[in-house]
Amino acid sequence: MSTPDYHVLAKPIGPICNLDCKYCFYLEKESLYPQVAKWSMREDVLESYIRQYIETHDTPQVNFAWQGGEPTLLGLDYFRKVVELEKRYANGKHITNAFQTNGVLLNDAWAEFFRENHFLIGISIDGPRHLHDAYRVDKGGQPTFDRVMRGLGKLKEHNVDFNTLTTVHRANVESPLEVYRFLKETGSGYMQFIPIVERISSHATGEGLHLVSPDFSGEAPVAPWSVGPRQFGRFLCAIFDEWVRRDVGRYFVQLFDVSLEMWAGLEASLCVFRKTCGAAMAIEHCGDLYSCDHFVYPENRLGNIMESPLETLVTSEQQRQFGAAKESTLPRYCRECDVRFACNGECPKHRFMTTPDGEPGLNYLCAGYKMFFRHVDPYMRFMAAELMAQRAPANVMRWAAAEDARAALQNTGRNDPCPCGSGKKFKHCCGNTA
Fold first, then answer.
1. What pTM, to 2 d.p., does this model score?
2. Active site residue: 293, 357, 377, 416, which one?
3. Active site residue 293
4. How far apart, in whole angstroms, are the C-alpha atoms of residue 96 and residue 259?
């Protein structure tokens, strides 16, 4: 049996974290393992996972991703062991590591380790102090901004490659340019903007969960910290408008890069925009493998790698059906949409709404994505054409400036100040030759 190209997000400390972010969907996963006394992936499980993960990838490079909870709580020696095991089982393959952290515990030792072992760090930060601290607090409810920035400073001081992961929620969604410009000021060249959408049930499920899956049929209103669909669309459009005029080729925003892939006729590199899913799984501290990081529910448990080979779980019929359901359950309203090629219904986690004609399965963020994809269409068409002609997509900045100037001329009255900034009336300046 051939193993498809797949990825696993490893959670060696499960949901245990030193922060208490108000919107976090993973903290309550602790209730799925009520008997656990020590939250740490045992060495035999860790070794089995690393060995199997490398063996089942028939590629010259194998990419590991480590998350939590907060993985730095395991200590530096734990990840020295990770690197040792990766080298032991590499078998000539090149091994890379991505490591997601809240940054609070980062110091010189961590940063030096990351640099020496070429880890790519994803650091979570939601904007400047007043926006970040709105939800990202510690267990005592205290703000974390200063500690995160101190940790980020250590990464920069030791020349560690990093990107920023920014969740978009009710506290920062109305400040898109403030967030974007702040991230640029911090030195972030690669940015991810992740919409926060959760539903809360007033009664816990049998497993003790309140943040429910999209299939939950009981009463579960959208959490108050969740981003609004149109808010999210406006947030993305505002950042895109500044990026496409000033920053193409200098700063990289994941959604913009993935959009260009789709306009160029390529398959999206981000799973949420692919026609089907199922190639991105999550492994818990005990070796339990789940269909997706956003579907860590009992019904989505595929098995345990200490009981069944990882390859068997990855290629199981259960996982195949999970991945195929993304396309097969897409409502007609979505199948007939003009931006389906870019959206494909986005993440199944968010598909708990009904369409205007009453069909289930509409994405909660639909209106926002429609707004964004339609807004960027002319720019994406231009950049895709440049790529096809083997020219730089960054040429879009000159094109956008010319289009802006043309629009300004068309909308300027004869007696208005000329948009070129000369100080003359339009009729005595550019309007005289327009």
1. 0.93
2. 293
3. yes
4. 25
